[in-house]
Amino acid sequence: MDLALWIAAGLLAVVALTGGAGKVFVRREKLAAAPGGEWTADAAPGFVKSLGALELLAALGLVLPAVTGIAPVLVPVTAACWVLLMVGAMITHVRHGSAGFAVLNLAYLAVAAFVAWGRFPA
Asked: Which of 4, 84, 87, 93 is deepest in the core (most CB within 10 A)?
């Protein structure tokens, strides 16, 4: 079970890292032209960058506390926050006609819920 939780948290961390880096370092116009990124055309540039920064922090929060042993409760808290983020992402993608990406977000939500459930202290 512990191995499955590490794999799930690592997967989510990679997803958060790549998504966050894209939102922080790629121009909004280029993001808007990419599949699944159409929503960024309607969003303020600061919002997109802030969302990316939060995703980068989530990548750290999903792994670093457990690796260092410092405040490991932050792992399930981060995973629970990721669940909420994915709900918003699903709503956004459905509104912009990207149902396929909403399904992908649902998969990420399920993985995050598994991490949150498995890592919360008993």
From this structure: 93
pLDDT in tens, the chain (122 residues): 999 999 999 999 999 999 999 999 999 999 999 999 999 998 999 999 999 999 999 999 999 999 999 999 999 999 999 999 999 999 999 999 999 999 999 999 999 999 999 999 87
CB-CB neighbours of 15 under 10 Å = 20
Q: Which of 102, 78, 89 is nearest to 13 (CA)?
A: 78
Domain regions of the chain by residue span? 2-119
Structure tokens at 115: 């991490």
In sequence order, what are the residues at sequence separation of 6 or more whose Cβ sits closer than 8 angstroms to the Cβ of residue 10?
Answer: 62, 63
Q: Which of 17, 32, 106 is nearest to 64 (CA)?
A: 17
Residues with Cβ < 8 Å from 25, sequence gap 6 or more?
52
